[in-house]
């Protein structure tokens, strides 16, 4: 009996020590407030980096929040409510052109293609973009990349936005799917997991990928305010290192393995559905080989914004993009 009690006490003691050591290690981590534009498997590399402990390996603890819109994520970044923002490149361009002194500076690229899909009410395996002529499509926020990329694709295919195709742009990001299911529009443009969920529930059919149709652009990136980067270069480097580990891991593993790792981030999404989503993103070459944004893709993105009438003046690449951190991560 004495030995049994002693054994129980030893187990409890070891448990307490382990808990205290774990708590101390957690307290030693630097907390980074990361605001992502939306929560989607489109950003699988960052979730892999979180779930695999790559950020912790770099001494960072990620406090994740979703802005549900680039305007909201940028507001959080500029106000200091977020240390790092993950959103579209266009947000940094707009803020810079507004004359903000402490504007957002891009230091790493997460995706190289648009991550949204065109959904039709009827299945159409032979879909052509010309099929949209005379139709109504639920689009995105005016000035946002989802909407600008869509308009760019229409023009590439000989269609004039708002003339040949009626586009609804006054709905909140979180309201578009519900509006479509409720009967609004002939088509809607949705991110994952919403696109595949609509399909799985029998409320629509994915007929085209905007990412494939538009070509490679720096669709979503990591940025921090100019001042934050100047004051915290080591933190930015650690963050970039951790993210790059996630990027490599996603490139080297199957959709099934990726889904298994990031499923805690999407507990309400069926794992088979998550595998389908990740497979779709892998097949369209969504994620770049490195987090380094090149000038050519940055210029293409500005071409798209200019084409959409949303760019007052072009922004020099070196003014809002810094590649030093990403390049050092790749070298390591």
Average pLDDT number: 92
Question: How far apart, in Å, are the first and last alpha carbons?
Answer: 56 Å
- What would the CATH topology of the largest domain be? D-Maltodextrin-Binding Protein, domain 2
Secondary structure class reads alpha/beta
Helix share of residues? 40-55%
- Shape summary: globular
SSE order: HEHHEHEHEEEHEHEHEHEHHHHHHH
The CATH superfamily label of the largest domain reads Periplasmic binding protein-like II
Number of helices: 16
Name of the top-level CATH class of the largest domain:
Alpha Beta
Strand arrangement within the widest β-sheet reads 2-1-3-10-4
Taking the sheet with the most strands, its summary is: 5 strands, mixed
CATH architecture of the largest domain: 3-Layer(aba) Sandwich
Radius of gyration: 22 Å
Number of domains: 2
Strand content: 15-25%
Uncertain ranges = 18-25
Number of E-type strands: 10
């Amino acid at each position: 009996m004495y030995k049994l009690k002693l054994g129980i006490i030893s187990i409890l003691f070891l448990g307490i020590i382990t808990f205290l050591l774990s708590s101390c290690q957690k307290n030693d981590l630097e907390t980074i407030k990361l605001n992502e534009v939306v929560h989607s498997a489109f950003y699988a590399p960052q979730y892999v980096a979180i779930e695999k402990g790559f950020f912790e390996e770099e001494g960072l603890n990620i406090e994740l929040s979703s802005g549900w819109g680039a305007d909201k994520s940028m507001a959080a970044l500029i106000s200091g409510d977020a240390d790092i923002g993950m959103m579209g490149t266009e947000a940094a361009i707009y803020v810079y052109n507004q004359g903000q002194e402490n504007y957002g500076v891009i230091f790493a690229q997460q995706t190289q293609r648009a991550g949204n899909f065109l959904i039709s009410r009827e299945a159409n395996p032979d879909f052509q973009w010309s099929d949209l002529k005379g139709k109504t499509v639920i689009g995105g926020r005016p000035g946002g990349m989802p909407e600008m990329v869509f308009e760019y694709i229409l023009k590439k295919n000989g269609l004039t936005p708002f003339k040949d195709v009626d586009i609804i742009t006054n709905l909140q990001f979180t309201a578009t799917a519900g509006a479509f299911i409720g009967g609004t529009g002939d088509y809607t443009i949705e991110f994952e997991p919403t696109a595949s969920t609509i399909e799985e529930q029998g409320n629509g059919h994915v007929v085209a990928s905007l990412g494939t149709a538009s070509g490679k652009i720096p669709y979503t990136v990591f940025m921090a305010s100019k001042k934050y980067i100047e004051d915290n270069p080591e933190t930015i480097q650690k963050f970039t290192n951790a993210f790059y580990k996630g990027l490599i891991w996603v490139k080297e593993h199957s959709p099934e393995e990726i889904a298994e790792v990031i499923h805690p981030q999407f507990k309400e999404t069926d794992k088979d559905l998550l595998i389908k989503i990740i497979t779709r993103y892998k097949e369209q070459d969504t994620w770049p080989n490195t987090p380094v944004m090149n000038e050519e893709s940055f210029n293409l993105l500005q071409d798209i914004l200019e084409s959409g009438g949303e760019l007052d003046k072009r922004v020099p690449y070196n003014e809002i993009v810094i590649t030093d951190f990403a390049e050092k991560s790749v070298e390591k």
